[in-house]
C-alpha cells in the first residue's frame, strides 16, 4: 500500500525531490556522467553496458533523435577507451510503430558498435513486444552474430519455447548471447509466473539450459539465491569467463557485486543516463511499485 502510494505521488513532487530518490540508480543526465561513472567502475574491474533513458515515442520521426544519441554515445565511449557494450529498448526506435523503420535504426546502431568490435544488447520490454524483439534479434543475429544479444525473462510462461528457438539459432559460427533476468514488467497471470520461488526455479532451469547449449549468458540478478545457484552451475559445468558474466543495475547491491568480483567472476553494470531520467524513474515506479520500496530502503541501508 505504502509503495503504491509513493509510486503514485512521486510524479507530482518537485523534480529536485525525485532526483534525491533516483540519483543512486542513474549516472546523470549527460553522456559525460555515464563516462565518469564507467571510469569509476572500471577502476573496480567492472565492465559496463550503457543505456540512454528515453521516453516512449508516439511518432516514428522521434526515433531519429534517439539514433543520434546512440551513435554519438558509441563514438564517445570508444574514444574514451572504455570497455563498454550498449543496451537499447527497441520501442524507443519505433519498432512497435513501424517494424522495418525501427529495424533499420537498430541495425545502424549495431553496425556502429561493430565498427569498433563492440556489442549491442536488445533489452526485452513488456510481453506485447516479445515477438517483435525476438524477430529483430533473429534478423540482426543473422547479419552480426557476434555484435548483438537479446534478453530472456524468466517469469514469462513462454520462455522455455523462446529458449528452444534461441538454441536453434546458436552455432559456433553464429553464437547466441543471452542476458537472463527475472523480468520487470507487471504482466497478467496467464502470461507470467507471479510466485517468487517459482520464478527463481525457472531462472535456474533457464540458466542450466543455456549453459548446456554452450550459450554465453549475462546472469542479470541481485538475488543471492540466484547468484548462489548460478555459481553452483558454473562449478558443475567447469565454466570460465568465456561462458558467462554477472550483470547488475547501477547503484544496486554493491556489496554482492564486490563479493562476486572477489570470487573471480566477471561483472558488468548497467549504467543508465539521460535527460529523461524523471519520466524513466516515475514510469518504472508506476510499473512496479516495489521499486519504491527498494529506493526508500536504499536510502537507509547501504549494500
Ligand atoms: C543488468 C540488468 C539488465 C536488465 N534488463 C532487463 C530487461 O531487459 N528486461 C526486463 O524485463 N528486466 C530487466 N532487468 C530487471 C530484472 O528483470 C529484475 O526486475 C530486477 O533485476 C530485479 O530482480 P532480481 O533478480 O534482482 O531479484 P529481486 O528479488 O527483485 O531482488 C533481489 C534483491 O536485490 C535488490 N534489488 C533488486 N532490484 C533493485 C532495485 N531496482 N533497487 C534497489 N534494490 C534492488 C533488493 O535488495 C532485492 O531484495 C534487468 C536487470 C539487470 C540487473
TrEMBL record:
Pathway: Amino-acid degradation; L-proline degradation into L-glutamate; L-glutamate from L-proline: step 1/2. GO terms for molecular function: nucleotide binding; proline dehydrogenase activity. Its EC number is 1.5.5.2. It catalyses: L-proline + a quinone = (S)-1-pyrroline-5-carboxylate + a quinol + H(+). GO terms for biological process: L-proline catabolic process to L-glutamate. Substrate binds at residues 89, 283-284. FAD binds at residues 124, 153, 221-222. Residues 36-289 form the Proline dehydrogenase domain. InterPro entries: FAD-linked_oxidoreductase-like, PRODH_bac_arc, Proline_DH_dom, Proline_oxidase. Binds 1 FAD per subunit. Keywords: FAD, Flavoprotein, Nucleotide-binding, Oxidoreductase, Proline metabolism. Its cofactor is FAD. This is proline dehydrogenase. It comes from Marinilabilia salmonicolor.
Amino acid at each position: 500500500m505504502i509503495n503504491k502510494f509513493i509510486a503514485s505521488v512521486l510524479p507530482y513532487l518537485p523534480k529536485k525531490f525525485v532526483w534525491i530518490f533516483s540519483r543512486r540508480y542513474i549516472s546523470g543526465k549527460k553522456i559525460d556522467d555515464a563516462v565518469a561513472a564507467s571510469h569509476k567502475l572500471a577502476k573496480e574491474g567492472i565492465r559496463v553496458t550503457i543505456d540512454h533513458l528515453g521516453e516512449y515515442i508516439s511518432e516514428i520521426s522521434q526515433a531519429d533523435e534517439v539514433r543520434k544519441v546512440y551513435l554519438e554515445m558509441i563514438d564517445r565511449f570508444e574514444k574514451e577507451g572504455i570497455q563498454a557494450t550498449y543496451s537499447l529498448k527497441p520501442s524507443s526506435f519505433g519498432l512497435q510503430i513501424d517494424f522495418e523503420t525501427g529495424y533499420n535504426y537498430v541495425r545502424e546502431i549495431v553496425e556502429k558498435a561493430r565498427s569498433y568490435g563492440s556489442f549491442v544488447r536488445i533489452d526485452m520490454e513488456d510481453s506485447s513486444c516479445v515477438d517483435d524483439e525476438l524477430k529483430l534479434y533473429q534478423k540482426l543475429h543473422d547479419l552480426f552474430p557476434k555484435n548483438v544479444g537479446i534478453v530472456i525473462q524468466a517469469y514469462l510462461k513462454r520462455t522455455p519455447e523462446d529458449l528452444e528457438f534461441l538454441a536453434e539459432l546458436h552455432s559456433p559460427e553464429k553464437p547466441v548471447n543471452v542476458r537472463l533476468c527475472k523480468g520487470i514488467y507487471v504482466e497478467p497471470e496467464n502470461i507470467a509466473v507471479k510466485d517468487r520461488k517459482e520464478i527463481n526455479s525457472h531462472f535456474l532451469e533457464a540458466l542450466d539450459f543455456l549453459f548446456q547449449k554452450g550459450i554465453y549468458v549475462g546472469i542479470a540478478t541481485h538475488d543471492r539465491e540466484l547468484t548462489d545457484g548460478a555459481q553452483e552451475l558454473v562449478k558443475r559445468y567447469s565454466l570460465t569467463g568465456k561462458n558467462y558474466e554477472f550483470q547488475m543495475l547501477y547503484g544496486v547491491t554493491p556489496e554482492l557485486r564486490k563479493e562476486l568480483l572477489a570470487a573471480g567472476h566477471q561483472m558488468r553494470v548497467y549504467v543508465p543516463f539521460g535527460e529523461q531520467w524523471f519520466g524513466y524513474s516515475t514510469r518504472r515506479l508506476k510499473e512496479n511499485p516495489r521499486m519504491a520500496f527498494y529506493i526508500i530502503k536504499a536510502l537507509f541501508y547501504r549494500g
